[in-house]
Write a structure and sequence with these properties.
Elements lengths: L1 H34 L3 E13 L7 E16 L2 E8 L6 E8 L2 E9 L6 E11 L2 E9 L20 H4 L11 E11 L3 E8 L16 E8 L7 E10 L7 E11 L3 E12 L2 E12 L5 E11 L12 E12 L4 E11 L9 E11 L1
Antiparallel strand pairs: 1-2, 1-18, 2-3, 3-6, 4-5, 6-7, 7-8, 8-9, 9-10, 10-11, 11-12, 12-13, 13-14, 14-15, 15-16, 16-17, 17-18
């Protein structure tokens, strides 16, 4: 009887062994799954209606559809990848003359129009310094480094958004390495080396020269909310490749008011450009913000002959209302003029935007 019971027990153990092993494997898998670094997902959507612009038909536009993924690889190393799904893919064309006709001889994807925005690793050196490696926003201008959801107006200043001649002068990305931090508890710095000044984001460098860029801001401890600084960039090489950027900024911001002014001077080969703006934003309540901005932009300092080289001026007034913690509506009225050319005539543009962050 005892022998039979032992045999039964042995058979039962053999029968349960696979189940026990499977349970242990599942437990290990669950533990491994719990040990995986967490991934955070954030996003931003902005849709607006534009009317009154003589160069663009009235209509809605999905201007931003950002998705940002971030995670932790180690206590000192983080990663981030950001996409803008609202971007429209464009191509670059090169042409040549054949007899009396102009023909296209090469077509390539404009890498800057791809939906990939940021793709970078951040290594924290200490509490006051970190290093970013990969594709990232270049350190040019204050407004160019503010997230779109926090910009006071529906559109950024002219020297950033107007790109009819050469690349924008802020809110542009390139591939490189940068050091970012705070020195002496008062000096904010962002200094980096990049392939270009934002010309070839998402692409390999087309030349041996590299662009040096940096932004430094002094925040005096005795005047809370004030920041005074500047930014710049330099890339050498032949004249057609040569790039220079010089900018200055001053801002005071607290819970009630923002006062900000910037200027930006740029050289792209033989092209010289210059822009500046002054902005005031008042927040009478936590949900309401009123804004006014004077914006002056000379896209080509060599002349004032037509729209392609004309100085453009915007006077912007408007406001925004925070609907809840994540969504807001904004309305801007823009008086657009070209003071030194006879055409096109001045116009009044209305922008009505709805945006949300998550």
């Amino acid at each position: 009887m005892t022998i039979r019971r032992s045999v039964c027990v042995t058979r039962t153990l053999f029968a349960l062994a696979p189940l026990v092993l499977a349970a242990r494997a599942n437990a290990q898998d669950s533990t491994a799954a719990r040990a995986l670094p967490p991934v955070e997902v954030h996003g931003f959507l902005q849709t607006y209606y534009r009317t009154g612009d003589p160069t663009i038909k009235d209509g809605f536009r999905l201007r931003k559809s950002d998705l940002k993924f971030t995670g932790v690889l180690s206590p000192k190393l983080r990663w981030r990848v950001t996409f803008d799904a609202a971007k429209a893919l464009t191509v670059n064309k090169s042409t040549t003359k054949v007899d009396d006709s102009t023909v296209v001889n090469d077509v390539a994807i404009d890498q800057r129009s791809r939906i990939l925005q940021d793709a970078a690793l951040t290594y924290t050196v200490n509490n006051s310094m970190s290093v970013d490696i990969g594709q990232q926003i270049v350190p040019l201008s204050l407004e160019g480094t503010i997230s779109t959801s926090n910009v006071e107006t529906v559109e950024r200043t002219l020297f950033i958004v107007e790109r009819s001649r050469a690349v924008g002068l802020g809110d542009v990305r390139d591939i490189g390495v940068s050091a970012n931090g705070l020195a002496l508890n008062a000096v904010e710095y962002h200094i980096g080396v990049f392939n270009e000044t934002g010309d070839d984001a998402g692409n390999t460098d087309t030349n041996d020269q590299k662009a040096l860029m940096g932004r430094v801001v002094y925040h005096p401890t005795f005047f809370k909310g004030l920041g005074v600084g500047g930014s710049g960039a330099f890339e050498g090489g032949p004249p057609v490749q040569h790039r220079e950027r010089t900018a200055g900024e001053i801002q005071f911001r607290d819970d009630v008011i923002t006062l900000r002014s910037e200027f930006m001077s740029a050289r792209d080969g033989n092209l010289r450009r210059f822009g500046w703006y002054g902005l005031t934003a008042v927040r009478p309540t936590k949900r309401l913000q009123l804004v006014a901005r004077w914006d002056d932009w000379d896209r080509d300092r060599s002349g004032e002959h037509a729209l392609i080289d004309a100085t453009e001026r915007h006077v912007v007034i408007g406001g925004s209302l925070l609907l809840d913690t994540s969504a807001k509506i904004a309305i801007n009225a823009i008086r657009q003029t070209f003071p030194f050319v006879s055409a096109p005539k001045s116009s009044t543009i209305i922008l009505a935007a709805f945006q949300a962050v998550f």
